[in-house]
Amino acid sequence: MRNLLLITFILFATMAKAQSSFNMNLVYQWNDSSLPPSAAHDNTYNEIWGYENNGREYAIIGSTMGTHIFDVTDVNNVDTVAFIPGKAQGPSIIHRDYDTYQDYLYIVADEGPSSLQIADLSLLPASAPIVYDSDSMIIRSHNIFIDTITGHLYTCGGATNLGFGKLSIFDLNVNPTDPKLLMNCEFDVPNWNSSVGYLHDIYVRGDTAYCNTGNDLQVIDFSNLSVVSFLGSSSNYIHQGYNHSGWLHSSGDYYALADENHGLKVKIFDVSDLNNISLIDTIGSNINDSLSIPHNLIFNGDNLYVSYYFDGLYVFNTSDPNNISLAGFYDTSTRPHQNNVYEGNWGVYPFLSSGKILASDMQEGLFVFDVTFPTGVDEVENSNDFEFVVFPNPTSNYLTITTTLFDEALNYSIIDINGKKVRGGKLTKAQTTIDIKDVVAGFYTISIIGSEGNVVAKKFIKK
Fold it and tell me: What is the model's pTM?
């Protein structure tokens, strides 16, 4: 027994320190220890974006010093193809943000005497020259979003030449390298300060803007800039905190929202009727119910990619928004959970044609993943075999089970190292969370019995 307990302790210590993953394979990582971290959050790195042209794929990541561009077409031969120095540089820089339109990269920062920079990416991999760098309109911006349907650039927060910037809209149609101001909402929209005010982030599709104000979600129609219309809002919902960022599903029927607070879940809203925006579900990493923090999130198809600061990158399958399941995860961060601290995974870019996933970690830099997400339920409907995932592992309070069998209740048992059953019950959804707060610390096995009597077991550690 003594040797068994020693083995259990060694296994626990190894698993507690190891980076965990599911369905995500790290194929490339980069960081540069010579770059200075910010003075605020010890973050050297910030936003991640991607670009592809002429059959080649590029990763774009921000740092305290500027913008770094990598050719990641061949992950075995990644090449640094360009570095664009920031207008403002150094430990004061926390946030950079990016978007692309046609073959141009738009770059902003939210600290220092910065500017709007525009780089021509069409010449990659040879170079990415700056074709515009000016603070005449945009001095700082917290986030930018380009509605490619209308060719309009939206800037949130920061500062403009008119003073503090809340939301401004620029036209890129005539000349993408010479943006023209269309509207500064603080001055051009009646009662903007009392109805919306500061805007932290925005998602826009065809002039319909989903606005994350920090306080609530506002949906606004900008199709007629002479008469801006408010279409709907959600100002009171569970797990509400600092309304940080969101993304609209391709169907336009539901919207994912992250509140940037310790212990809060990601919300999935039904926005098919903007007069009656309703909450469908809440989802989380289930790593630390008190300290985990969602940051940025993006839909690509039915997969929702969520950056959790300390926990890493999580991907959820939302093909059935009433029955959301885990598709994959990778813990990019080595930082421990702490209250009033924001460190770890910053952002994700999931749109490269090859299927590679790009992610940025505030301390660890650029990550490139190859993924093997489950393709759906149909593949296992006529099979006696099934798989399930147990996470987090190790765990403290809750154990989450994701299984490939969606439609039937399955019996489960939790067995300790002495062979004693300490918990049992039924799994009734594709993803079920089991409360194990009262289970003593140790090494356990959870077994699930399929409809044909076949048993699949996984080991886990209760801290």
Answer: 0.81
